[in-house]
Amino acid sequence: MKNIRLRVVGPEGQVKVSAPHRVPHSFINDFVQQKANWIAMQQQAIRALPAAQIADENACRVALKERVPPLIDYWQAQLGVRCNGFRVRKMHTRWGSCNIRTGWINLSLILGAAEHELLEYIVVHELVHLHERYHNAHFYSWMARMLPDWKAREAKLRALNLRFQ
Ligand SMILES: [Zn+2]
């Protein structure tokens, strides 16, 4: 089993195998066959994803410039924190981040294509960090007080499958 890597990649669910040269082909074939169930499950999961929604970068930038400042104004007052500004970035693994030292938040450009309540959820999340740096009980008690349905919003955001071209 050493160093054989098996992956199922989207959107067609192709199977990719990588192995060192010294591993015989017959061994690799057996290995893949043994993993047939796992492969089928991965492929099923990929097919169950909603079709990617393709977002336009410029439209996202314009939308965020307009939509974020009122959200920050409103929610920093609710939370009693001071946010000094926001930047928009193309992020690949996160929707946002917060620099608690400078009081600035970063938002993922893709959020420009998300509906109001989902963008709001991320803005609130980042602003709560100005109270609490870590995702701990204190953090989540603020989230629950400010946005009681934040978990549903997060699930919705994850399910969106927003992409840039
Ligand atoms: Zn966070």
Describe the structure concisely for a colleague:
This protein is of the alpha/beta class and 165 residues long.
Structural summary, described in words:
It is a single chain. This protein is of the alpha/beta class and 165 residues long. The chain has two domains: 5-48, no CATH class; 54-164, Metalloproteases ("zincins"), catalytic domain (Zincin-like, 2-Layer Sandwich), CATH 3.30.2010. 48% of the residues lie in helices and 18% in strands. The chain is built from six helices and seven strands, in the order E-E-H-H-E-H-E-E-E-H-H-H-E. It has helices at 25-34, 36-48, 57-79, 116-128, 137-146, 150-160; strands at 5-9, 14-18, 53-55, 85-89, 96-99, 104-108, 162-164. The strands form three sheets. Strands 4-6-5 form a three-stranded mixed β-sheet, with helices on one face. A two-stranded antiparallel ribbon has the order 1-2. Strands 3-7 form a two-stranded parallel sheet. Helix 3 (57-79) crosses helix 4 (116-128). The mean pLDDT is 92. The site of zinc ion has 3 residues, from loops.
